[in-house]
Amino acid sequence: MNDKATTPLVEMKGIVKQFGTVEALRGVDFRVDRQEIVGLLGDNGAGKSTLIKILTGMHTPTRGQIYFEGKPVFINSPHDARDIGIETVYQDLALVPLMSIARNFWLGQELTRGFGPFKTLNHKAMAEQAREALLDIGIRIRNAEEAVAMMSGGERQSIAIGRAVYFGKKLLILDEPTSALSVKQTGEVLNYTRRAKERGMSVIFITHNIAHVHEVADRFTIIRGGRKIGDFYKHEVTEMEVAQMVMSGAVPDRLKLPDVVEE
Amino acid sequence: MANASSSADMLASGQYSPERKLLRNSKFTATIILLVVTGLLSLLFSEQILTGWLAFGERANISRRELNLIELLLAAGGIVWGLLSLYTAWGFLRHPATPSMEDYLGGRVSLRSPGVLFTTALIGLLFAVSIFLIEQVLTGWLPLGERANISRRDINTIEWVVVGLGVLGALLNGRTLIFLLRRDRRAWAWAQWVSLLTVLLMMMALFSGGIDIYSVVPPGGTALDNIPGVLELVALPLILVLSAISTYRYLTLAVDLSADQSIRNRLAKSPGAGAIIGLAALLIGFSLASSLFLEPRAIASALSTNVTNGIVAIGITLLMISGEFDLSVGSIFGASALIFILAMTEGVFGLPPMNAVIAALLSLVFAGFLGFINGVLLIRTGIPSFIVTLGTLLAYRAIPLVLIPEGRIIRYADYGIPDPFIDFSPFLLIALLVMGGLALAYYAIRQLPTMWGGVRRRIVTYRETTAPFRDVAIVTSALWSAVVTAAIAGLALFIFSGIADLLSRTDEMLRISFFDLANGRIESLPIFGRLTADINLRTGVFWWFLLVIVFQFILTQMRYGGFTFAVGGNAGAARAQGISVSRVKITNFIICAVLCGVAGITFVSRVGSVNANLGDGLELEVIAASVIGGVLLTGGYGSIVGALLGVLIFGLLRTGLVLVGMDPRVFFGVQGIIIIVAVVINTAVRRVRT
Amino acid sequence: MRKIARVLAAGLLAAGAVSVGVGVAGAQDDALTFAMVSHGGVSNPFWIVVIKGMEDACTLLDANCQWLSEPDYGLEQMAGYWDDALALNPAGVGTTVPDAEVIRSGVERAAELDIPVIVFNTADPGAGTDSALPTLFYIGANEFTGGISNAQRVFAEAAAAGTSVTRGVCTIQEQGHSGLEARCAGVESVFDEMGVPIDRLNITNNPEETAGILSDYFAANADTNAIFMLGPAPSSGLNLYLQESGREAGSLFATSHDTSAEIYQMIQDGYLLQTIDQQPYLQGFQTIMWLYLNSQFEMAPGGDIFTGPGVIDGSNVAAIIDLTAGGYR
């Protein structure tokens, strides 16, 4: 159903995950193309977070295979996921509140000067480059030395997104990024998500509410009861139909295609 | 300056438009209550003067009819101020939406609007008080500190400081007053700063008055039995503090971002703000109460006595920033001190008695191992560090109990072994000094031009800047640059004289006892001159400060410090960025334990004996010091310099209370109050908008 | 936390007790059991001597003895140790009484069970009143008299040196301890009688801190020329202060309580005039002996037995040092 010439960035095939006797995922195919924003939708407990945890290395699948840029990969830890270019932005785990924006931005890969054990942090360069990098995708910050605790939820998400873009990640996973945000802040986060796409990234946007993602997503993947219900480009469906599918799992007749009904 | 321009950005973007706060909230109610209390206190104060119970100035007899000029002025001022406070409170109550400073500056209400009038009156009063203070000190009417004679020409240091503060106060308040009357927008920010500074200054005065309260309490009675005496000590600063707090609260009802944000920002950036304020209060309070306090002898004694606590507090602060506790520091300290002294005298772990340096290294390795056990237990079991180290606190305490089976006190002197002397070649010391000199020169070349350039830039751009405190910024930056320059010059002089001294006697080896090197009298090192006998400054103080500098540097300037903050602030985020949380925590446990070992070595080097209970209760003292120094109990925030200040506060508090001769029974009470006050200030400072 | 410490201490002591019992007589099934409950224990050299007295007496009597206390110092924990003592089904119990209320229920249960109780080391503050604990008598030093002895010695030495005592200070390292408060009260009674001012000063058991406090105190009170220390750790602090400040041996009239190698040396060096020895060995030894005599033969002395104040000063310190090596002093 996708005729793009390029190979998908990520492809998960036949993913099964069992926790004891409980089958959380019953053979799910999932795909993200390059420079694409995919809205991963599903009610609580549908299996969407299990799927993402498999992708980010926090769980290993019982069966199934993951391909990254066409090559089979085995993601056994969050570290592996980071190494191949997958960045996850969790709602509350993204930043250290009492550290400055610049220090958060560079956390784990600080700019230093000096040599050997005497490397010291280059605060000035970090602040300037963080400011520029964030401005580059449209995030205006007042002062990069300011503590993250002083910022709103939307601004924090934005900085985490900006960081992922700057460090050349290929896939950005946003886990319920907007569920605690006001309408205005949600708008900002969606805006930066779009910018991330323009910079060449792919994005998985996880949510249970179509309204949060309809504006920016190119495609929707709907999960329910551990199975994939459907996979639709934005022009194929209305917002209402997607919401219906998330809630009831009933796919409208006109959208039923052989490849989505298969086991 | 950045703050002002950025707030303009904020306003322009519409993101942070100043919303009028709801005035009928609990915060506002508290302001009204504060005003009422202020008013009643002022009236009570005047009443006490007029009825003759409270005497000021020089008065031959206390008959009720003879009031002197100062008393009449104070009584009249008290009445006016009391009525004004009550009027303001009443005005706030009467109007459902009280006009804010915004309304006044915008020309919508007159100066007579309650809050505005009160603010203006307070600034005016502060201006008058500043002038009055200068005049009184300079004319010799107001002796401060202990002074042999009250001739007018003989003004001591403390009085000069007060005059300086008075001049500063007069300038700040006078200018604010002019701005206010002209409806200049800058008045808002200035008034906020002025009221904040007033609160701080008057808190110090209140503290120094508070120290003396017990002296006016009649034997067997309470403070209520001598209200005039208590009022004389605390009423004036208390009234000013309450008034300034009310004003600050009124001014922030409708927020002027420039000042409020910059005050908060600046305070939030220094974890030790509470400790700095507390230390300043102690220094001023005690130096007013006792002339012996700011003597080199007392300071040296307070520093030397707190080397142990100071070094251990560094480690515990580092650990607490990474979000963990170590209650076992006292036991580790005691155990490693014991290993050190036993290794030199009897031998430990089946080894024969050994050289002091090797014994020291052995005790450090041993301490590090104990810390490693703490860390691994924590990571492997996932039990909170509070519980894990509570267990090891007891378990490690068994080490001395087993090693000294008869509960003896191990004394180095009992073994008849000579002090462990080490021979140093003078050339080695010269080489060290030259290296130090080169490092100093490098720092001077890199930093001094930047600093003075900054001062120059501020002067050149004076006209263009719109920051509220551009002139203050120039003065402070120039002063700071001067201090740094002087310090560098002093160190350079020290290094040169040291090298010259050593060059004159290159033919002999320098013999220094290991104990003197670790924690002896400072002049036992040959490069220092003679001090008088009663100044007991130990070399351990030098190591303590050096460790503070090193760890503060690691914490703020190196990647590892950042990891420590991140692990304590949000372990999940740190992990997500590839930082090994458990490795950082275990490392900090080891660092903390090794520092306990260092403290053990300095202790043994000075005292020369160890008993099985050594270090009992140390953990609470150092955790309290760290917390006073601004460390957040939940981790992710704090500074090593703050911990240094916290330890100094404890040390100077004890020195001060002994010098003042305070009843020993209230000692713990005062200590407790200081902890709570410092932490309240720290929390208030940190409560940034989230 | 204290419970863990108690278990630990009990374990250590049990190991010690077993080795003593096995090594000496071979435990007898019908051996008597005596328990001694205290507020101080094995980590303090003072109590080690008391414990040795207890063990020697028990060896002579072929009895089982248990020392029940925190390893270092613990007042509130004594209630729990009293429960443990009664659980041993003892023929008699010795106890210190730093705080009567903490151990009252234990002592009263012992009275109901007809188990004799002797107070040692620290007397019942309520003795002779309605609130007195039901105990037989007291074996130990009279702390108040000890304080008086020290103060009188200071005044005598000052008179002999041709000077006078201008001001004194009594240092106290564990505030609220009734025994220590009594020592200071004894000193103060003499000073009040002579009309010389006397201060109290809070110090700690850490010599380094004590030295700092003393340095500050003497800076503020240069006229003080008499100081009273109440134990070995405080004396260690005084020694550190004297050495670091370089004060002459005769410039300060100082005395102490209890003993340690450092205190002996300070007496020999002239830094201390004397120390009050309460003869701790006697307290352990006699308590067990009288518990035995009372439980088996209903014997009792005519009143309290005082093991002190015994004075150690320059005249007898050399002899005492020899005895210390044997663990008797």
Structural notes for this entry:
The complex is a heterotrimer of chains A (263), B (690) and C (329). Chain A has 263 residues and is of the alpha/beta class. Chain A has nine helices and twelve strands. Chain A has a domain at 10-95 and 176-261: 3-Layer(aba) Sandwich (Rossmann fold), CATH 3.40.50.300. Chain A has helices spanning 48-55, 78-83, 101-105, 123-136, 153-166, 183-198, 210-213, 239-248, 258-261; strands at 10-19, 22-32, 37-41, 63-68, 71-73, 86-89, 112-113, 120-121, 171-175, 202-207, 219-224, 227-233. In chain A, the strands form three sheets. Chain A has a six-stranded mixed sheet, sandwiched between helices. In chain A, strands 2-1-4-5 form a four-stranded antiparallel sheet, with helices on one face. Chain A has a two-stranded antiparallel sheet with strand order 7-8. The longest helix of chain A is centred in the last third of the chain and has 16 residues, at 183-198. The two termini of chain A are 17 Å apart. Helices cover 70% and strands 2% of the residues of chain B. In chain B, helix 2 (26-50) packs antiparallel against helix 8 (227-251), helix 12 (307-321) crosses helix 20 (559-569) and helix 13 packs across helix 22 (581-607). Chain B is globular. Chain B starts with a helix and ends with a helix. In chain C, helix 9 (261-269) runs antiparallel to helix 11 (317-325). In chain C, the strands form two sheets. Chain C has a six-stranded parallel sheet with strand order 2-1-3-4-5-11, sandwiched between helices. A six-stranded mixed sheet of chain C has the order 7-6-8-9-10-12, with helices on both faces. In chain C, strand 1, helix 2 and strand 2 form a beta-alpha-beta unit. At the A-B interface, helix 2 and strand 8 of A face helix 1, helix 9, helix 19, helix 20 and helix 21 of B.
From N to C, what is the helix and strand string of chain C?
HEHEHEHEEHEHEHEHEHEHEEH
Main pleated-sheet profile of chain A: 6 strands, mixed
> pLDDT below 50 for ≥5 consecutive residues: which ranges of chain A?
1-5
| Assembly form of the protein | heterotrimer
Strand content of chain A: 25-35%
What is the second-level CATH architecture of the largest domain in chain C? 3-Layer(aba) Sandwich
**Residues in helices of chain C, as a percent range:** 40-55%
Structural class of chain A: alpha/beta
The CATH topology of the largest domain in chain C comes to: Rossmann fold
Q: What is the CATH class of the largest domain in chain C?
A: Alpha Beta
Q: What global shape of chain A is seen?
A: globular
Q: CA-to-CA gap between the ends of chain A?
A: 17 Å
Biggest β-sheet: strands ordered side by side in the sheet of chain C = 2-1-3-4-5-11
Structural class designation of chain C: alpha/beta
Could you name the ranges of chain C where pLDDT drops below 50 across 5 or more consecutive residues?
1-28
* Major sheet of chain C: 6 strands, parallel
Q: Can you say what the CATH homologous superfamily of the largest domain in chain C is?
A: Response regulator
Rg of chain A (CA only): 19 Å
Supply the number of structural domains of chain C.
Answer: 2
Write the element-wise H/E pattern of chain A from the N-terminal end onward.
Answer: EEEHEEHEHEEHHEHEHEEHH
